[in-house]
């Protein structure tokens, strides 16, 4: 693997981690809000 490929995959890997964490947080927040809005007493 060339130096460029190595740098490319390192950047891709390190940028993917926070995106996955933030996306997971957003999904959990959206599901929580949905469950609370469905289960609340009107």
TrEMBL record:
<protein>
    <submittedName>
        <fullName>TIGR02808 family protein</fullName>
    </submittedName>
</protein>
<dbReference type="Pfam" id="PF09574">
    <property type="entry name" value="DUF2374"/>
</dbReference>
<dbReference type="InterPro" id="IPR014175">
    <property type="entry name" value="CHP02808"/>
</dbReference>
<keyword id="KW-0812">Transmembrane</keyword>
<keyword id="KW-0472">Membrane</keyword>
<keyword id="KW-1133">Transmembrane helix</keyword>
<feature type="transmembrane region" description="Helical">
    <location>
        <begin position="12"/>
        <end position="36"/>
    </location>
</feature>
């Amino acid at each position: 693997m060339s130096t460029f490929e190595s740098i490319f995959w390192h950047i891709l890997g390190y940028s993917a981690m926070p995106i996955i964490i933030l996306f997971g947080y957003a999904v959990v927040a959206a599901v929580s809000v949905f469950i609370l809005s469905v289960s609340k007493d009107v």
